[in-house]
Amino acid sequence: MTYFIAGNTAVENSRALSQSALPNAPQEPYEEPTRRIAGVRARLGAALRSVAARELRLAERLDPSPTCGS
User: Fold this and answer.
1) Distances (CA, A) of 63 to 12, 58, 69
2) d(Cα 37, Cα 7) in Å, to the nearest integer?
3) C-alpha to C-alpha distance for 35 and 14, rounded to whole angstroms
4) pLDDT tens across 8-38, in order?
5) Cα 53 from Cα 57, distance rounded (Å)
């Protein structure tokens, strides 16, 4: 016996369509980034943050914003 659940046929239809779109496509396993890549990302992020902080300091020297309460 089959029970009808609202939305079930739409889910099954979309699943069947997605599986039949590329039936022979190779499945690529997901590989975690290596420690080397993670280290490069961390160093690059730190470098970009320091450059941004330096640019902010230079911009503040060129055009200082007024401070309230002084």
Assistant:
1) 61, 9, 19
2) 43
3) 38
4) 666 666 666 666 666 676 677 877 778 888 8
5) 6
DSSP string, the chain: -----TTHHHHHHHHHHHHHHSTTPPPPPP-PPPHHHHHHHHHHHHHHHHHHHHHHHHHHHHSPPPPTT-
Using CA atoms, how far apart are residues 31 and 69, in angstroms rounded to an integer?
54
Beta-carbon contacts of 33 under 8 Å, excluding residues fewer than 6 positions away, are 41
pTM confidence score: 0.44
d(CA 19, CA 56): 51
